[in-house]
Structure prediction request, 431 residues.
Amino acid sequence: MKTTIVTRKIEFYVNESDKDLKKQFYQTLRDFSYYTFKHANELVDTNRMVDVIKRGFGNSKNEITSEEMTEQLSGMFGCKPVSVPYKFSNQEFRDKLPSNIRVALSATINALYAKDRSDVARGNRTIRSYKNGMPVPFTKTAIRQFKFDVERRNFTFIFNGIPLITRLGRDRSDNKSILESIIEGKYQLCDSSFQIKDGKFFLLLVHKVPVEKYKLNEKRVLGIDLGINVPLYGAINDKKDRIALGDRDSFLNQRLKFQKRKRQLQRDLKLTKGGKGRGKKLKALESLSTKERNFAKNYNHNLSREVINFTLKHKCGIINLEDLSGFKKNTNDFILRNWSFYELQTMIEQKAKKVGITVNKVKAKYTSQRCNNCGYIDKESRKSQSEFECTSCGHEESADYNAAKNISMAHTKEFQKEIEKHASSLKLCEA
Ligand SMILES: [Zn+2]
Prediction:
């Protein structure tokens, strides 16, 4: 069966009535967190060391094959080069971290290091370093005796000998049913982590969920255009159905209201030097910021939910999203600065994954200039922000629909070739 991997954030605390023991358990958790960050950086350092030595060998005059290099390094370290980071830092952290944390940590850190290596070499990023407070990964065997406590309406479990209990609270995201499914074996628990944030303890519980079976057409694609006129516009490659979501004006008005109120509070704060009044105003400002963030987040949640419903209704197996890397960076437009398109895309991706819809990131170059009727690309065809009229075939269409329709086809090789051809012809004209 097809499955998908999901992470849930669940608050927990120590489940122990004896005061001293309780204190000790909390300290152990904090120590785990502290030594994890130390260990993580140590792993990065040892990975680097092996790389530097390898480079030294490579630069020496004697030509050396990679097999010979591996042999020499193995002799030097007493183990294979890939095992060096684990072997070295393992000695130092053996009595500070349980093996279920050390194993998961070195797997995570080494994989990330290997992934970043080529980017670092090209100068596209620097080497990752880790801060105190990072998530503490552990293998799934670290959690034992997971069960529901009927009286306290929460789940208890033992983590490395420490008795813990969840704090589900209002449980709006229904973590209870997920934990029940894990206990029943319907969902499979995976290697997870815990994190301490602002003095609170959270499980970042990773588990495998079977993908619900929707009968989707694997060739039908929903293309999504994120824009200024209509925040989100969707079109299907082989159907005329379309979806326009969001309302620019109401979104902007709400955001402006927040910002106006914030500026007012900030001005008032400057005039209030101290005392109770100041504290009150600071609190008001803080809660306003939280409200503003929640407003934008909820807005994106609603949009992404509607997109998925539309996709399922039309049985699209694929969603094409614009590749936002380098997207309209220098824009001055208020809506683009105030709207988290990335967040919206991430939400769409997450929700799509759960129902088995594939998400493509496509380059959206020229998708607003290309005529979806005849394929002709011309920036003059875009008559205005909202109208499209092809300068070649005369086809008229809403600019948003035309762009979304192009995006729904942009993953195909033919389409990319067409775009490349156009781009190179433009270069020829300039030259
Ligand atoms: Zn045309």
Observations:
- The pocket of zinc ion is lined by residues 371, 373-374, 376, 390, 392-393, 395 (CB under 6 Å).
- The CA atoms of residues 14 and 164 lie 5 Å apart.
- The chain has three domains: 3-18+136-210, 24-122, 217-247+307-430.
- The mean pLDDT is 87.
